[in-house]
Amino acid sequence: MKAIRRFTVRPVLPDALRPLSDLARNLRWSWHTETRELFQSVDPDGWREAGEDPVRLLGAVSAARLDSLAQDRRFLRRLTAAADDLDDYLHGRRWYQEQSGELPCAIGYFSPEFGITAALPQYSGGLGILAGDHLKSASDLGVPLIGVGLLYRHGYFRQSLSREGWQQEHYPLLDPNELPVSLLREEDGTPARVSLALPGGRALHATIWQARVGRVPLLMLDSDVEENAPGERDVTDRLYGGGSEHRLLQEMLLGIGGVRAVRTYCRLTGHPAPEVFHTNEGHAGFLGLERIRELAGEGLEFDAALESVRSGTVFTTHTPVPAGIDRFDRELVARHLGDDGELPGVPVEQILQLGMETYPGGEPNLFNMAVMGLRLAQRANGVSTLHGAVSREMFAGLWPGFDAQEVPITSVTNGVHAPTWVAPEVFRLGARQIGAGRTEDALTVGGSERWDAVADIPDSEIWELRRELREQLVVEARERLRASWRQRGAGSAELGWIDGVLNPDVLTIGFARRVPSYKRLTLMLRDRDRLMELLLHPTRPVQIVVAGKAHPADDGGKRLVQELVKFADDPRVRHRIVFLPDYGMGMAKKLYPGCDVWLNNPLRPLEACGTSGMKAALNGCLNLSVLDGWWDEWFEPDFGWAIPTADGASTDEDRRDELEANALYDLIEDRVAPRFYDRGPAGLPDRWIEMVRQTLTTLGPKVLAGRMVREYVTRLYAPAAAAHRALDPATARELAHWKGRVRGAWPRVAVDHVEALAPAAAAPNGTAELGSTLALRVRVALGELGPDDVDVQAVAGRVDAADTIADAATFPLKPAGGPDLEGRWMYEGPLALDRTGPFGYTVRVLPAHRHLATHAELGLMAGPTEATGEGAGVLMR
């Protein structure tokens, strides 16, 4: 019989064991080895059955076992030490508290998904894992972040395979009472709520669940409350599920409801209100509209409120392709954010303008969440150097007239939270070398000097560690493969072959990620005969472990999974290549450390960053990757291999795959496998071990989320907080008025005349000597504007055959006297000829104000026309 109602009966812990509850409720246990080992010792079998989740473990452990532990003095000493360590971690001074200067007292960090631990399955892939690592590293560094997301009752799907290898999805129901979260409650004990108005007089209500991520609170909104109608109750049912309106409601709840949840949390706990709001991808962009509504309620006009909100907002884009951005029908947005819906007092036409694709090729009837995110944030970034460049190209239409390199989108390369992803065995090796405290600092704060100690670890210890981790992966893979085949309908008698799958002494390549087409899961299958030769080589065999999920609606991705599975089912190679279904954090923690080589072969430049290779590198795994994302930035032949790309415009996709697959086979056959199997006098692969050493010492400090979060603090959060503090209501009104005045006057701004006084102007052959200086005189029309409203610059550098300036440098020009009778101003200044070869310059006028973050902020620029004169052209050839 089935139960008609389900609830959780929690154990009553003996007084001596009460600290276990606090340890279980703070997710620091998910990355703190000593705390995890303490819970494992409570009941080793129960720990595995509970999925290494302390909350589930304590809900299942017997009263007799608890009573026994309460009398166990050794266990109680360990418990006291762990509780004291957590208290010190939560309340002691950390990196952030030691910094000088005025840093924000709090930052709101909004993301549609968070991958903190497998025990809280609220993530689908890299975006969520990155967001989780951001929170954990902020906690380690003492950064006062408040995370904001949604609590999905079904999370993301669980993956299994049919007998034919077709992906099947399952959505187990998550009971928040069985998760490491707690309800945020009002002072009278009732659950705290936020509500959104919907068209037709309806409402969307949500409770607020709180997870403790070390020092960082993570607030998650849950629409599964009785006050909601069925449609609204299901808003937070699944991550990235449902149709367009469903997604819009999720994103309204995340952005608008998320700000209200933060306000409620700060009111109830006394936590400082955020000065900076960080929008992690466009899904959370509506948070800016809610903050505008708040300021409108305080009497600030829309334009002034927009400036105030922009000053304190950071926007991070994670997609390198327009197809990866959420776009909604304008009428749908208008219906939900108009007078009959949410955000009363905020003009809906101005809201729609924020998301309008005003650039060439844009769809005027669509509302673009990333475009709105960029317009609502004064500071924006991509997630690797290459992705920053791709993003500037992709969004350049929002700043017409500016070269892509001047588009105000910077980059902060992603990092990974080392204490989460480094295997305990790797940590212990480091602790033996430099001590546990210094090893922990190396993994959290970073610093090359701490990683240099890897050079002193004997080769034999490194190789022994690598084999131990490979062996653990072999055991894990066999267990998962056996479970998968049973789900596919195989009986135990059919599965004896699994005991011979993989070999702890064979070169092991890992490939695991989501399965959109651009990541090319099946590139390795391009020439199956050649792949078989690599797998079955008599002296230098290769084995491959593959995992990945296709989106439930992506049949093309599912076909790729099936194609790989069918190849891996072939009795000739199934001991050398395996596909492990249901890729997630639990599997990843064994997969990254256990592989010798991490393979990544996306279509360049479609990988924004790609952090799985970073996690592998922290465990001494070498990367074999296309030069995309972070690998394009940090690759060196000393610690990995670059797969050549055939990304010329004339190469069709099929030909490109063929060329790059052949390059991949050549690399494995000629360079990777020989280096792994080449043994030195001591029987060790000396050159391979040296590459492992270089990976750890060179990449280790770079790939840390601690490095990433420190960059966000110094380069984005601190400037945003300073800008926000400077923009009080009067200053915000003044800035909004100035921008309106400049936009209105800009059509009459022009460069009327440019002349070069010396020396090149006198050179009959159009040449000049390196190191000489050119004196420029420029006449500009400013209309109703004055010199205080603009900057006039010369822009110079090398030029190509089309006279396009590359690697440009700017030189300020200053007013020389007042306006002439026609209201035009003369500007003068020197231009240094600091480069040889074809050289050119031009002149431009840009808006200038003390509260602009960049000259490009308004997207306005005036330059010379063809009639202006030779001064805008090429000087030297």
TrEMBL record:
It catalyses: [(1->4)-alpha-D-glucosyl](n) + phosphate = [(1->4)-alpha-D-glucosyl](n-1) + alpha-D-glucose 1-phosphate. Keywords: Allosteric enzyme, Carbohydrate metabolism, Glycosyltransferase, Pyridoxal phosphate, Transferase. Residues 13-120 form the DUF3417 domain. PROSITE patterns: PHOSPHORYLASE (PS00102). Its EC number is 2.4.1.1. Its cofactor is pyridoxal 5'-phosphate. InterPro entries: Agluc_phsphrylas (IPR011834), Glyco_trans_35 (IPR000811), Glycogen/Maltodextrin_Phosph (IPR052182), Glycogen_phosphorylase_DUF3417 (IPR024517), Pyridoxal_P_attach_site (IPR035090). It is an enzyme of class 2 (transferase). Pfam families: DUF3417 (PF11897), Phosphorylase (PF00343). It comes from the Bacteria. Belongs to the glycogen phosphorylase family. NCBIfam families: more_P_ylases. Phosphorylase is an important allosteric enzyme in carbohydrate metabolism. Enzymes from different sources differ in their regulatory mechanisms and in their natural substrates. However, all known phosphorylases share catalytic and structural properties. This is glycogen phosphorylase. It comes from Streptomyces mauvecolor. The lineage of its organism: Bacteria, Bacillati, Actinomycetota, Actinomycetes, Kitasatosporales.
